User: Fold this.
Amino acid sequence: MKNYGSVDFKQQQSSSSSPIETQMTLCFTFVAPRVVSALFRRIGRIRRYVEDKMLATMLQDFRDVVLEEDL
Assistant:
């Protein structure tokens, strides 16, 4: 599936002992064939799998890259 998106980072006032807090807003879009998108809408199990497995893993990998760059 083709995909695209953007990430916006905004520095926030610290509310804890951490010196800097950052709000991250992630926006992405998947362009799927019509048949696939129809299946996603109709079958909740497929949608949950995509959200829980594919998207969660992708977001965790992204987090790891950001944290690694910060070191």
User: Anything to note?
Assistant: The helical segments are 34-42, 44-70.
